[in-house]
Amino acid sequence: MLSIKDLQVAFRTRKGEVSAVRGISFELARGERLGIVGESGSGKSVTSYALMRILDANGRIKAGDAVYSGIDLRKAAERDMRDLRGREISMIFQNPRAALNPIRKVGHQIEDVLRQHARATRQDARQKAIAALEAVKIRDAEARYDAYPFELSGGMCQRVVCAIALACDPKLMIMDEPTTGLDITTQKAVMDLVDELVTARGMSSILITHDLGLASEYCDRIVVMKDGQIVEEGAPQLLLSAPQHPYTRKLVDATPRRGVTIRELLPQEERRPLAPHVVAETPLLEVRNLTKTYQGKSGPVHAVRDISFTIREGQSVGLVGESGCGKSTTSAMLVRLLDPTSGQLLYRGEDLAQMPAADFARNPLRGKIQMVFQDATDSLNPRHTSRQSIAEPLKRMTDLRGAALAARVEELASVTGLPEHLLDRFPHQLSGGQKARVGIARAIATEPDFLILDEPTAALDVSIQAVALNLLADLRARLGMSYLFVSHDLNVVRMLCDHVIVMKGGEIVDAGPVEQVMDSPSHPYTRELLEAAPQVPIPTAAA
Amino acid sequence: MTDVTVENATPARAKKGSGTLRHILWVLRENPVTGLSFAMFAGLLISALIGPSIVPYDPLATDASATLQPPSAAHWFGTDNLGRDVFSRVIVATRLDLVISVAAVALSFVFGSVLGAIAGYRGGWIDTVLSRVLDTIMAFPLFVLAMGIVAALGNSVANIIYATAIINIPFYARLVRAEVNIRRDAGFTQAAKLAGNSDTRVLALHIFPNALPPMMVQVSLNLGWAILNAAGLSFIGLGVRPPTPEWGIMVAEGANYIVSGEWWLALFPGLWLMLAVFTFNLMGDGLRDIVDPRRRS
Amino acid sequence: MGARGTAIGLRIAQAIPVLFGVIVISFLLTRALPGDPAAQFAGAMATEESIEQVRTSLGLDKPLVTQFGLYLGQLARGDLGQSVSTGQPVIEELASRLPASLELTLFALILSCAVAIPLGVLAATRPGSWVDQLCRLLVTAGVSLPTFFTGIVLVYVFYYLLGIAPSPLGRLDFIYLDPPHVTGFFLIDAALAGDWETWFGALKQLILPGLTLALFTLAPIARMTRAAMLSALSADYVRTARAAGLAPRKVLYGYAFRNALLPVVTTLGMVFSFVLGANVLVEKVFAWPGIGSYAVEALVVSDYAAVQGFVLSMALLFVLLNLIIDLAYSVIDPRFGTSAK
C-alpha cells in the first residue's frame, strides 16, 4: 500500500543544507500498524511530513521514491496531494490543543474537512460533523459541536483532532507523538480508541514515537531510526528480545521496565556494580498534616490537603501522580520555596514551616535542602556559564572564594561527569544531558542531606535518562543523601526508590514500600496508573 | 541541533572581559546593517561632541548679503532667510537633539525598569496600582500628552525631556513587568533562591538581566521616537526656541519657504533628523545581540 | 456566551477608572502652570479684575480637592472654559473642528490598512521575496519618517514641482463652497448633497495630508501583520489544516489570517495613539482646520484653556477608540475574557 525507497529529505539553513532523512526504505501493507521509533533528531517526524508533502518551506525531498497505492507522492501535483490528504492519508499531531484552530468552533473545523473532500453538503455538514464526533466517543457530541478548543480538555482535543483525521474515512493514519503532554491514563484512553477505530475500519497506521513501550503495545512492526537512517526493523517481540543493531540494543536497554535494575538501563559494557545505599531508622524529614490552599476566583482551591509522611535518612521516596495532583506544590513546600497554609515540616525535629519561605534563603539549613529541576534548560540562567551556575550556591552560602572555589566547582563537575572544558559554556551551548549534569552539580554543591528531584529526566531522551538516573543512584550511595523523587513514570520510580507515595486530587491515596505498592497494588487508582503505563514485553534474559 | 553547536564551539574561553569585547566585535562584523548603524551612530556622536568647534560658520551669525542661497561650495546646505549657514546649524543641532533623546530615554529606562520589575515580581496590589497608572498615561495619545505637559510645565528644554520621559515610561515598565513576570517562577529563579539569594538579589541579578535583550530593542526604538517627539514639539513651537539650532525648528522655519521653492531650508535638517532616527532603529538588533549571551557561539 | 457578556461588560466598566485617571491628569496639568494659573488662564491682555474673576470661577483660592470638584462640575456641564484669543467656549470650537480631524485621520487609517495588511500578508507568505524586502524597507524607513517632514516633502514635490496637487491650505479650495453640514465630513456631506465637483475638490485636498499620515502608520501595521502572519502560518493548527487537505486559500484566510488579525487589531490601539499625535503636526503643515491646528494656534498665544481642553478631548476620544477596538476584538476572539486569554 505504501512503499518508500531510499527517501532523502534535506533542509536549507543558514549553515548550508542539513540532511534530516538520509535514504530510508520501508513498506507498509494494508491493515498493518507500523511504529517508527527514535530519539529526538532522528528524522522520524520529518519522514511523515515528507510523505504528506507538508514540510516547511525550507525543506524538500532530495531523492528517493514514495509510492502510495500507485501514486507517486513525490511527483504528484499539489492539487492531487490535497485530495489525498485527509481523504486517503490523515495525520494527528502532538500537543492536540495547539493543533486545533483556537478561534473556530470544533464542529466547523470538522465540517471544513468534510466539505473540502465533498463528503458533505451545506445541508448535512452539521449532522455529519456530529457523527464524526460521536465516532470518537465524545459524549454529548451535539453540544461539543459548538465548543472552542480552549473549552475542552487535552484528551478531548486529541479526540477532536482524531475526528478531523477520520472524518473522510482515510485508508492510512499517521500519528506523530499523539500522546505527548497527556497524562498517562488519558494517553491510554486515546491510544486504545484510535487503535480500535483503525482496526475496525481496516486502516493502516504509522505511529511515530520516542516510546518503545508505546510502539510495542500498539504496532505490528517497528522501525528504529537514528540520525535519519533506519537501523533496524522487525516485529516488536523479536526486536525487543533480540535486538541486532547496537543502537537498538542501547535503546531497548535504556527503556525503563519491570524487573530490571537501574544499572541494566546502561549498555552492558558500562554496568559497574552499584554501591548499596544505606537507609537509617532515624527520620530526616517528617511531614505532618501539610495543607496548601489557594484563593481562586471561584472559592478556595485545595492544592494539597492534609498529607503526612516520613522520609528517613538515606531513604529515597517516590512521589507519583498525574498533573494537578499536587505533587509539584508539595515539593515546592518541602524545598521551602512556598509557604504551607498549615502543617509541620520537621527536619531533624526542627519545624521548618515556622520560617517564612522568603527568609529561608538566609537560613543555614538552606544548603541542606536542595532541588534538581524538571527542565534543565529552564532551570539554568541563560546569562550564566556552567561555572557561574555551579558556583552560585557556594558563593552565597560558603566562604569558598578564588582558587578554592574554582577547585570545588571542578571537583563537582568531575563528580557529575561534566567535562571540565564545558564549565565556561552558556546553557545554549550544552546538550540536554550536559545541562542536566550542571543542574545536579549545582544541587549537590553545598552537600545537602535532602534532595528533591522534580521529574529530573522528563525532558531527556531515554538513553540520556538512563545515564542521569544512574548518576543520581551513584551520588546517593556516595553522599548518603535522601531523595524525594517526583515523577509520573512508575517504572522509573520502581527502580530508584525504596518507598512510594501516590497522590491524587491533593491527597495521598496510597503509600508503602515500592515492592508492596507496585507489585501487588491494593488501591484501585494505583492499579489504574500501573495498567495505563505501556508495558514493554521484554524478556529480562538479556541481563 | 544542540549537539551541532557544541561540536563547533571552541573549548575553553579566555578571560571574561576580552570575551565580551570579542563578542561585540563579532556582532558588528556578523551583520553588515548593525555595523553600518553603529558607524552612523559614531558619526552622530562625533558631530555632537566636536561639531560646534569644526563647523565652518557660526550657526547664529546672520549675513544679510547672503540670504536664501541654494547649496554651493561655500554653503554646502545653502543659507536661510537670515543668511545663516544651514550646514553649520544642522551639525551643531546634533548635540541638543541627542542630549534630549538620550536623557529622556535614560530617565524612562531607569524609572520604567524599577517600577516594572517590582510590579512584575511582587504582583498583587502594587501591580494593580502601577498597571492602572500606566493605563492612564497610555490613555492619552502620547504626543498630545507631551504637548500638554510642556504647555503646563513651561516651555523649556528640560521640560521637553521630562515630558518625553513620562510618555515613554509605560513602554519600559510594561515590557519589564512582562519579562519579569514570565521568569518569576522559572526554574533558574527558583534555583537562585535555593542558592541562598534573597528576593532582591534574585530580581536584580538573576531575573532583570534576562530582560535586557528585548529592552535594548525598545531603547533603540525609543531613542528614535524621542528625537521625533522633541523635534515635533519644537516644530509646533514648544520647548526649544529660535534662534537655537534644532532640527524640528529648522524644518518648521524652512516649511514657509517650501511653497516658494527654497527646498534646502527644510530638506537638510529633515534629512538629518531622519538619518538619526533611522540609525537608532537599525541599532536595535545589534544592541540586543550584544547583551544577549545566547547569541554567542 | 454568558461569560463573554460579563467579560464585555467588565471591559466597559474598566474604562471608567481610566476616564477618571485621564480627568485627574488633565486637571493637574491645568494647575501645574508656573506662576499664577489665574493670570495664565486670563491671558496676556487680562486686567486685575478679569484675573480675579477667573480665580473665583476656577476656585483657585480654594483647596485643591474643592477645585477638582468644581472642575468635575464644569466638565459635567460640558464646560471646558473660554478661549482667551477668540472669546468662544472651547468646547464649541473643538466640536466644530473635530469632524475635519476625524475625516483626515480615518481617511489615512483606511488608506494605510488597505496597503499595509495585504503587504504584510504577502511578505509573510513569501519570505525572502521582493515583496518581503519591500515590506522590510518600508517598515524600517516608515518609522524613521518625521510626519511633518514627509508632509513638507510631498508638498514640495506634488505642489511646487509637479503642480498636480492643490495648495496645502485647508480642506477645500476657496472656489468651492462648503457642502451643507450633515456629518461634518466633507466627503460624506458632498456625496449626500450629490455635489461631486465639491466631492472631488475635498478629496484632492485630503490626498496629500492623508498620504502623509498613512505613510507614518503603514510601518507599524505592516510590521505587525507580517509578524502575526508568520507566527500563524507556522502554528500547529495550520499544519493540521494542511494535513487534512484543506485548500490553500482556506488555510491562508480561514485559518492563518483570522488568527493573525487578533494582534493586528490590538496594534491598532497603539497606531491610533501615534496617528492622533501626528495629526497635530500634519494639520499644521497643511493648514488643516482641525482640532490639532487649533491647539497649535492656542499654544502660540498661550491660550491654556484651549490647549488643555484639546488634550482632554483627545484623551477621551482615544479612550473611546480603544474601547471600540477591544469590543471588536471580543467579537473575533471567542477566548475574550476567559482564562485562556
From TrEMBL, chain A:
Keyword Cell inner membrane: yes
Record-annotated ABC transporter domain positions: 4-252, 285-530
SUPFAM superfamilies: P-loop containing nucleoside triphosphate hydrolases
Bilayer topology term: Peripheral membrane protein
The UniProt record lists the keyword Cell membrane: yes
GO-annotated molecular function: ATP binding
Primary localisation category: membrane
InterPro entries hit by this protein: AAA+_ATPase (IPR003593), ABC_Ni/Peptide_Import (IPR050388), ABC_transporter-like_ATP-bd (IPR003439), ABC_transporter-like_CS (IPR017871), Oligopep_ABC_C (IPR013563), P-loop_NTPase (IPR027417)
UniProtKB keywords: ATP-binding, Cell inner membrane, Cell membrane, Membrane, Nucleotide-binding, Translocase, Transport
Compartment list: Cell inner membrane
Top-level taxonomic group: Bacteria
Family according to the record: Belongs to the ABC transporter superfamily.
NCBIfam families (alphabetical): PRK10419.1, PRK11308.1
PANTHER family: ATPASE AAA-TYPE CORE DOMAIN-CONTAINING PROTEIN, OLIGOPEPTIDE TRANSPORT ATP-BINDING PROTEIN APPD
Annotated protein name in UniProt: ABC transporter ATP-binding protein
Organism: Salipiger mangrovisoli
From TrEMBL, chain B:
Transmembrane segments: 33-55, 98-121, 133-154, 223-243, 263-287
Principal cellular location given in the protein's record: membrane
Keywords: Cell membrane, Membrane, Peptide transport, Protein transport, Transmembrane, Transmembrane helix, Transport
SUPFAM superfamilies linked: MetI-like
Cross-referenced Pfam families: BPD_transp_1, OppC_N
Top-level taxon of the source organism: Bacteria
PROSITE patterns: ABC_TM1
Domain named ABC transmembrane type-1: residues: 94-284
Topology in membrane: Multi-pass membrane protein
Cell location: Cell membrane
Family of this protein: Belongs to the binding-protein-dependent transport system permease family.
Designated name of the protein: ABC transporter permease
UniProt organism field: Salipiger mangrovisoli
UniProtKB/TrEMBL annotation, chain C:
Keywords: Cell membrane, Membrane, Transmembrane, Transmembrane helix, Transport
InterPro entries cross-referenced by the UniProt entry: BPD_transp_1_N, MetI-like, MetI-like_sf
Membrane topology field: Multi-pass membrane protein
Entry keyword annotation includes Electron transport: no
Listed transmembrane segments: 12-33, 104-125, 137-162, 202-222, 260-282, 310-332
UniProt KW Thylakoid keyword: no
Protein's name in the database: ABC transporter permease
Organism per entry: Salipiger mangrovisoli
Source species taxonomy: Bacteria, Pseudomonadati, Pseudomonadota, Alphaproteobacteria, Rhodobacterales
